[in-house]
Every structure is written in C-alpha cells, then in structure tokens.
Amino acid sequence: MTSAAHIRVDGIAKRFPSPEGQAPITVFEKLGFSIAPGEFVCLIGHSGCGKTTVLNILAGLDTPSDGGVIVNGHEVRGPSLDRAVIFQGHALLPWMSVIDNIGFAVKSRWPTWTRAQTAEHSQRYLDMVHLADAARKMPSQLSGGMKQRVGIARALSVQPQILLLDEPFSALDALTRVSLQEQLMAICAEAKQTSFMITHDIDEAVLLSDRILMMSNGPNAVIGQDLKIELPRPRQRLALTDDAAYNHYRSEVLRFLYDRHRPQTTADSKAA
After folding, report:
1. What average pLDDT values come out for the chain (272 residues) when binned by 10 residues?
2. Contacts of 175 (CB under 8 A, 6+ apart)
3. For residue 96, how far is the Cα from the chain centroid?
4. CB-based burial of residue 44 (10 Å sphere; 0-12 exposed, 13-18 middle, 19+ buried)?
5. What is the pLDDT of residue 266?
6. What is the DSSP string of the chain?
7. From the centroid of its chain, how far is CA 17?
8. Which residues pair with 75 in a beta bridge?
9. Which pLDDT value is given to residue 141?
10. Euclidean distance between CA atoms 42 and 125, whole angstroms
C-alpha cells in the first residue's frame, strides 16, 4: 500500500462575489487543522457552513481564497490519484461491469499493467468489500449498498494516500449503513488509511472518528471545536449503544451543534 499521508490545512478561507458594490460573501475563514498519517477525522456542521467545499479543496477540485493545503510537504494544486474521493453518489460507469469499473481506475494508476494484472488487483479490492461474486454484474443489477461498496473498492484500488468521503452512506437504509460503516473501519485499520469524512450524522462521526472537527454556522464559519474520540478499536455500533463514553462524546457534539444553531438572544450578544 502507498504510505499514509500527513495533511496540514493552513488558514484556508472561501469567498464568493456579491452583487456590485457589496462585500464578498465569506463562507468560512481561517480554517486550520492537521491530520496525522492513518488518522480518521470527521468534519461535522450545519448545512451551509462549507463542509463539502473544504473537502473539495483537500481533493484539489476547488481552490481556497486564502491559505492552502499541504500534503507530505507539498501544496495541493489540483486533483491527484493520491487523494481518492467517495461521493454520496457511487458514480459508476453504467456500461461497464463491476470489475471493469474498478479496473478503469486501476489502469489510470498503473497504465503499463497487463489486463491480467489489472483484473487480479481489481478482484482483490472487490474481495475486500465482500463483492467477489458480483465481479461480472452491471451496476443496474446491484442494490444501492452494493454500488457504494464498489465505489469504496474503486477508490481504495488506486492505493491513495488520502481517502476523502463526502457523506457516502447518507442515501442508504439504516442496516446497510451500519454494515458499510463497520466494513470501512476494518479496511481503514488494515490499510492504515488516512481518511477525512464529511457527515451530518452524529452517531456516524463518533463511531468512525479518531477526531471530530465541528464547524460553526456560516457565513464566516470557523472550526469551533476539535474533539478527540478515545474509544478503543475495533468498534461495533450495537456494542457502543449503552457505552457511557460513547454517549458522552455524542452529547458533546449534539450540544455544540445545538448551541451554534439556535438563534442568538440579546443575552448571548451581551455575553459575546
């Protein structure tokens, strides 16, 4: 596997133009944090605070108005196969079989490989997400959960230094979601995969994360809290339901989101 990456986000901001004569709209500003090699970090916050924009900047799909992102000492200036993105939609190519969808990504990483090498490597990652028997199926023959597992296999098959996930399980039913969360944790642990994930789901964030970054409301959003999750691994969702530490972390995140979401009162304004 490619060695895990160290990420440093240095004071990034994102602004969009306003109508003529008005100041630009600042979605977020002065965001700074680091992610250690092999660490799983979740970013959580209310809609409109710029979470997906932060992920797109890390992916090299967008550029910050200020600041920058450094990966292993090099500034991010565009997309790279070392940063694989898994979106909410699986984005599989409908005219290709499951294994060919993965092989398409593998070939982009190792263009000189033979067809046999590409197929063997692709099959290894299908096995990892428990879809070995679906290799020759078309995307239209798969359930939503299976499609998302193919998307995960495809992203991991290029052996990225960084895995970027934008609410990849939000459209799935509860049982499929729990199953994929546990598979993702096992895969990331095995590969020592550096991962950064956007989610609205508090339980998901606490379950998966080593740290949770919590953003305040936009515009002018900032990271208001960096919460370290010190729960032993491996973790299982059902086993944590009655765990006091798990519920403490869950309450911390819920309290932050509630406090940052509620309308500011006169008393709050005076206190500030």
Report:
1. 76 88 87 95 92 95 95 91 85 93 94 95 90 93 89 89 90 83 88 92 95 92 95 90 94 90 46 37
2. none
3. 26
4. buried
5. 41
6. -PPP--EEEEEEEEEE--STTSPPEEEEEEEEEEE-TT-EEEEE--TTS-HHHHHHHHHTSS--SEEEEEETTEE--S--TTEEEE-SS----TTS-HHHHHHHHHHHH-TT--HHHHHHHHHHHHHHTT-GGGTT--GGGS-HHHHHHHHHHHHHHT--SEEEEESTTTTS-HHHHHHHHHHHHHHHHHHT-EEEEE-S-HHHHHHH-SEEEEEPPSSSB-EEEEEE----SS--HHHHTT-HHHHHHHHHHHHHHHHHHSPPPHHHHHH-
7. 28
8. 70
9. 95
10. 24
* CA max distance for the chain: 69
What tokens does 135 get? 């290799």
- Displacement of CA 182 from its chain's centroid (Å): 15
183, 200 contact by CB (below 8 A): no
pLDDT the model gives residue 4: 64
Q: How many CA atoms lie within 13 A of 117 on its CB side?
A: 8
Write out the two tokens for 172.
């799935």
Total number of residues shown for the chain = 272
C-alpha 46/C-alpha 258 separation (Å) is 10
Tell the residue number behind the tokens 């509860």, with chain if given.
174
